[in-house]
Design goal:
243 residues, Rossmann fold, two-stranded antiparallel ribbon, 10 helices, 18% strand, globular
């Protein structure tokens, strides 16, 4: 556990502690388990996966955190472990925090899965359609059942008053100007059938980040990175390996 702003943050660290550090950040309403399928395939690297405050085994914040608080929490955790220049891998909300982190702190490389960055007119539309689609994909039945327990478990309706306020703050925070400051190489993996954050946003991110490229997953959803986990891991490994 790591304590930041009087809040205990749960994280796991495994793999090769002497190698490059890869930090994985999950989406809203989820936890460490949703990023382990990626982390478990990168154990020749130093892998860190964090439960965001109010998620998994991490405590709820004692006050309303904004996105900078989440970003600084990650930075302080890494600083306490003597880690700088990490590779960040973020899904959805975790991708948004990854974008903000890379705009503020030294980051070696950035990998994004369905990451929102601007204010939506109609936020939060995923869940049922996404889960139905996942259940139709061979081999992902069990994962869909697991996801059912985690997706939206702390969404607006079910969240505590504190987490509800934080969610509203997140949804209403546009980080477009921050994204323009990112200098590190970035790959953007996105499902063409993402109904939570549309594929058009991926291509907009590509125009905002100089050294970036979109890799579309045809027919995949907001969880494209899991729907094609082998392809995802292969792309990540090729992208982050030292030349």
């Amino acid at each position: 556990m790591f304590n930041y702003k009087n809040t205990n943050i749960n994280y796991i660290r495994y793999g090769n502690i002497n190698s490059q550090t890869v930090v994985l950040l999950h989406g809203w309403g989820q936890n460490i388990e949703m990023m382990k399928p990626v982390g478990d395939n990168l154990t020749d690297y130093d892998v860190i996966i964090i439960d965001f405050p109010g998620h998994g085994k991490s405590e709820e914040p004692k006050e309303i955190w904004d996105l900078i608080d989440f970003t600084n929490m990650i930075h302080e955790l890494l600083k306490s472990l003597n880690i700088d220049n990490p590779i960040l891998i973020g899904h959805s909300f975790g991708g948004k925090i990854s974008l903000l982190y890379a705009s503020m702190y030294q980051t070696k490389k950035l990998i994004l899965f369905g990451s929102p960055f601007k204010v939506k007119k109609n936020p939060n539309s995923l869940k049922i359609k996404t889960l139905k689609k996942l259940k139709q994909i061979p081999g992902l039945n069990k994962l869909a059942e697991t996801m059912k327990k985690h997706i939206g478990s702390t969404d607006y309706r079910n969240a505590s008053p504190m987490m509800r306020n934080i969610l509203v703050k997140h949804v209403n925070t546009d980080i477009t100007e921050n994204v323009k400051k990112i200098k590190c190489p970035t790959i953007i993996i996105w499902g063409t059938n993402d109904i939570a954050v549309p594929i058009e946003d991926a291509y907009e991110l590509e125009t905002l980040i100089n050294d970036s490229a979109v890799i579309p997953y045809e027919g995949c959803t907001h969880y494209a990175y899991l729907e094609r986990i082998n392809q995802t891991v292969s792309i990540i490994r090729n992208f982050i390996k030292e030349k």
